[in-house]
Amino acid sequence: MLTLFSYFRSGASHRVRIALNLKAVDYHIEAVHLLNNSGEHRQQSYTKLNPQQLLPSLVLDDGTVISQSLVIIDYLEHAYPQLRLLPADIKLRARALQIAHCLAMEAQPLQNLRVLQYLEHHQQFDAAQKQDWIQHWMRPALHSVESWLEEWSPEQSKFRFCIAEQVSIADCVLIPQLFAAQRFGIDLNDYPRLAQIFTHCSRLPAFIDAAPENQIDAPVTAEFS
Ligand SMILES: N[C@@H](CCC(=O)N[C@@H](CS)C(=O)NCC(=O)O)C(=O)O
């Protein structure tokens, strides 16, 4: 069985959990706490697995370790083609990847724990300044995705997923990003199409089971802040 090294509130782990669930792949979660003991991901046992000291990592049955969430999803796409997360149509595929890359490569890295810890410890940022920083970098990415969706499909009532009726890698990345947006004080109503996709996906078992609050390592009274 596959093992996913994951943290309940890690957006990058969350993306992979959604992809695994959508593809109905059996997997086991090995929880790594990003805050306890100065970060379990920085301890030797995890560093041996992933020298980047970032979650997630996926370990295959033969011991092969894959890191980088989008690469893991690409691996799953080839290993478990039963449900395609990359549309067959090459233009739709480009759109799905455009959304995934915008959020995963430009928004998320700037809200990452190590960046926030640097701002706090080396630039003396307080909580309000950190929130302002995150919003400053996250809002343009969310706005871009909202604009693309508006351009690609002007009829808002049609929205269930980023690529119309087809769940894709874009939704695997968007939904965790919207969890983070809310956690950092962004009102999803500012992005009506994204909010609509969030509402729709939040009713689907694959997304519910992958949600931070439903993870084995989520605190009982989760403090999602
Ligand atoms: N590009 C990486 C990003 C991974 C990443 O940033 N993981 C975060 C959790 S969402 C992490 O482990 N952060 C630890 C830290 O910043 O110290 C991916 O997509 O897997």
Automatic annotation (TrEMBL):
Please report which protein family the annotation says this sequence is part of: Belongs to the GST superfamily. Zeta family.
| GST C-terminal domain boundaries | 89-220
Keyword annotations from UniProtKB, A to Z: Isomerase
Q: Which GO terms describe its biological process?
A: glutathione metabolic process; L-phenylalanine catabolic process
What EC number is given for this enzyme?
5.2.1.2
Query: What GO cellular component entries does it have?
Result: cytoplasm
Q: What is the top EC class of this enzyme, as a single word?
A: isomerase
In Swiss-Prot or TrEMBL terms, this protein is called Maleylacetoacetate isomerase
InterPro entries membership: Glutathione-S-Trfase_C-like, Glutathione-S-Trfase_C_sf, Glutathione_S-Trfase, Glutathione_S-Trfase_N, GST_Zeta, GST_Zeta_C, Thioredoxin-like_sf
PANTHER family annotated for this entry?
A: GLUTATHIONE S-TRANSFERASE YFCF, MALEYLACETOACETATE ISOMERASE
Record-annotated GST N-terminal domain positions: 1-84
Name a GO molecular-function annotation.
Answer: glutathione transferase activity
